């Protein structure tokens, strides 16, 4: 009898070793979570008649346990209770998990005894009809990476240790592969951003312009560049807000990292959150892969949010939280991700007016308006038009193969007399067109939009039918609007009109110019 028993033990042990060898071969072919799930469910169910109640992995924070895999069909008879249990957050300090993670070879729980003791999980285990629950720590080396819970009538210690060891290695490999894929995706994203920026940015290192208003912009940039302070760049369309943002980034300690740009006006409302904060696979229809957001991509670098005034209110609240907490959460994810991002935002809208109109959150405005930099419109810096013109002529001459060595004074005067509603961007496009239409080495003519000339003529005709006071009043209001209501001091209306501030105040009283005239909504 002793020999028979010993022989049976040898046979059982050989069968277990054969099983572990076959299981090891199955696991070796695993590359994804889906592959691992198929291998585990097939082998355990068909050969050992065991069920996988839950596999958890320790989150990046080292504290929370994230559900990695479970058999959805296991608790069909207790779906409501099972769904409730799945909704709970488990940690490594929870009683049962702490015991399992601190054990050497795992623990065995009798289902009936646990149910009698009041264990909430045991009520679920009972619905399967299996007698025991086996829980083992998943380890790679000396490091815990998670736990596995199995339900079966009987499993040997050898089988349990072998299964846990193989699954631990497979999960570690899957996690490593996912990280590699994320790094690869991040590099691809950065490469796309670099190509986009190289194709869009001006090909010069310094911003062109030496007038008094631009000197003030340079002074503010030099004061804020070395800090991590949020910068709000204000200015009309085409004034070069992105160029200012890039210059601030390049002068900052973060210059070795990629500056990430988001054009808020170009984002569909339903994709803003995904674009900024990323999403997990399956978070919504079409989310076939995990995607990191622009905040994660700009970690330890600068994030430039262009046209921030276009963000919908819901996205504004989430942006506010990201700025305040310095953390983001992907759409469909439960993990909090800490980020170190320096924000530079830009808009051509009057955010104060947007706040009053209820289209922009006041608390977000105060968060963004830490260090505002106002870019002057081109019509206020006519002294820079010649330098900008010569630069663009050289640039597009080189690009088009033209040889243009001279720009006539008449062209410069014509450009200075134009109001430039599109600012520097409009000037650049106009010079590009003019260069292409030039057939000799001298740029003698530029092609100012005809609608502007027509509007000027109509304005001139209208002015002939108005009194001098009416013309003065209209002109003063226009200058005040351009200066955003500033009357005296540097960049004020009095300086542009070349009269003392007191004189301008007197004229305004005489002509009946009030704040409602130059602060009215456009």
From TrEMBL:
GO terms for molecular function: ATP binding; DNA binding. SMART domains: AAA. The keyword Transcription regulation applies. GO terms for biological process: regulation of DNA-templated transcription. This is Fis family transcriptional regulator. Residues 207-436 form the Sigma-54 factor interaction domain. The keyword Cell membrane does not apply. Keywords: Activator, ATP-binding, Coiled coil, DNA-binding, Nucleotide-binding, Transcription, Transcription regulation. Residues 173-200 form a coiled coil. PANTHER family: PTS-DEPENDENT DIHYDROXYACETONE KINASE OPERON REGULATORY PROTEIN-RELATED, TRANSCRIPTIONAL REGULATORY PROTEIN.
């Amino acid at each position: 009898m002793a020999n028979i028993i010993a022989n049976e033990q040898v046979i059982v042990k050989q069968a277990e070793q054969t099983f572990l060898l076959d299981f090891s071969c199955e696991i070796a072919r695993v590359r994804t979570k889906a592959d691992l799930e198929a291998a585990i469910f097939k082998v355990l169910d068909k050969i050992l008649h065991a069920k996988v109640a839950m596999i958890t992995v320790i989150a990046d924070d080292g504290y929370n346990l994230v559900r990695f895999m479970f058999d959805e069909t296991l608790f069909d008879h207790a779906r409501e209770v099972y769904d409730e249990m799945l909704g709970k957050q488990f940690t490594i300090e929870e009683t049962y998990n702490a015991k399992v993670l601190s054990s050497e070879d795992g623990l065995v729980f009798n289902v009936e005894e646990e149910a009698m003791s009041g264990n909430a999980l045991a009520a679920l285990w009972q619905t399967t009809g299996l007698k025991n629950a086996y829980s083992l720590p998943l380890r790679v080396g000396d490091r815990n990476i998670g736990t596995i819970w199995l339900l079966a009538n009987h499993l040997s210690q050898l089988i349990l240790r072998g299964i846990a060891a193989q699954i631990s290695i497979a999960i570690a490999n899957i996690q490593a592969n996912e990280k590699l894929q994320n790094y690869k995706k991040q590099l691809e994203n950065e490469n796309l951003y670099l190509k986009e920026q190289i194709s869009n940015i001006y090909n010069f290192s310094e911003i062109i312009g030496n007038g008094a208003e631009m000197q003030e912009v340079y002074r503010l940039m030099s004061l804020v560049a070395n800090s991590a302070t949020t910068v709000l760049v204000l200015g009309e369309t085409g004034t070069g807000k992105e160029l200012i943002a890039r210059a601030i980034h390049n002068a900052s300690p973060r210059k070795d990292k990629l500056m990430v740009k988001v054009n808020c006006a170009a984002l569909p409302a339903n994709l803003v959150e995904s674009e900024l904060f990323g999403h997990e696979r399956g978070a919504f229809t079409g989310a076939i892969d995990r995607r990191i957001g622009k905040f994660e991509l700009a970690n330890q670098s600068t994030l430039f949010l262009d046209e921030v005034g276009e963000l919908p209110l819901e996205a504004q609240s989430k942006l506010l939280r990201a700025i305040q907490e310095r953390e983001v959460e992907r759409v469909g994810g439960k993990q909090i991700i800490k980020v170190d991002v320096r924000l530079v935002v830009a808009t051509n809208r009057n955010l104060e007016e947007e706040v009053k109109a209820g289209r922009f959150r006041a608390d977000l405005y105060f968060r963004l308006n830490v260090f505002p930099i106002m870019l002057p419109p081109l019509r206020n810096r006519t002294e820079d038009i010649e330098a900008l013109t010569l630069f663009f002529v050289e640039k597009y001459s080189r690009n088009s193969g033209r040889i243009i060595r001279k720009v006539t004074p008449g062209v410069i005067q014509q450009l200075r007399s134009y109001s430039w509603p599109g600012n520097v961007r409009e000037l650049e496009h106009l010079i590009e067109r003019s260069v292409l239409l030039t057939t000799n080495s001298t740029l003698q003519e530029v092609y100012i939009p005809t609608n502007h000339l027509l509007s000027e003529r109509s304005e001139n005709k209208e002015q002939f039918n108005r009194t001098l006071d009416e013309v003065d009043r209209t002109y003063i209001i226009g200058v005040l609007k351009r200066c955003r209501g500033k009357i005296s001091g540097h960049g004020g209306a009095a300086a542009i009109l070349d009269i003392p501030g007191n004189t301008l105040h007197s004229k305004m009283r005489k002509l009946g110019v009030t704040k409602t005239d130059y602060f009215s909504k456009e």
